[in-house]
Inverse folding.
């Protein structure tokens, strides 16, 4: 009888965990925090691999599901540095991008893909020419990097979340990304 109670209690706890995963969501603030950490980690890995380009994210503002659309707006500011012949050429960058959230169930990670540049500003005092071509190039490089960096990993959601994620899809609501069972 006592074992029956323990089994019932364990089953109830497991179902409660599954139910909480069924209604799991990720807020804009959580995405901003994870994006900053992911970009910093990715930059460290790239520098160790010998990449001449460094990207430091100083601020980010993420808006999920603006006007009910299945998109994410990213306003990011930071500094890109290009190392060339023992010198570093820094540029302050501000970008406004729009992309589509993508959930990779195998990795248990959320990415922002198909990034489109909405607005940009690059301030590079060492470059005394028209910055428009440089701005477009810098924006493309940053967008390529952001598309390969997950903004959230399900391992942050607790035990079993990654296992349960195999049958989940992702949708947007104003202010958050919501996981729901695949149909």
């Amino acid at each position: 009888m006592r074992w029956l109670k323990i089994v019932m209690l364990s089953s109830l706890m497991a179902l409660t965990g599954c139910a909480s995963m069924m209604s799991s969501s990720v807020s804009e603030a959580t995405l901003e925090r994870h994006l900053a950490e992911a970009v910093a980690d990715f930059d460290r890995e790239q520098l160790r691999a010998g990449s001449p380009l460094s990207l430091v994210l100083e601020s980010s503002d993420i808006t999920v599901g603006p006007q009910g659309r299945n998109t994410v707006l990213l306003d990011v500011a930071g500094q890109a540095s290009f190392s060339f012949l023992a010198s570093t050429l820094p540029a302050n960058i501000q970008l406004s991008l729009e992309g589509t959230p993508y959930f990779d169930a195998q990795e248990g990670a959320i990415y922002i893909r198909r990034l489109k540049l909405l607005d940009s500003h690059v301030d590079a005092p060492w470059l005394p020419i028209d910055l428009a071509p440089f701005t477009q190039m810098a924006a493309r490089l940053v967008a390529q990097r952001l598309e390969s960096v997950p903004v959230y990993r399900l391992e942050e959601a607790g035990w079993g979340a990654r296992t349960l994620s195999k049958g989940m899809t992702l949708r947007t609501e104003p202010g958050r990304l919501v996981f729901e069972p695949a149909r």
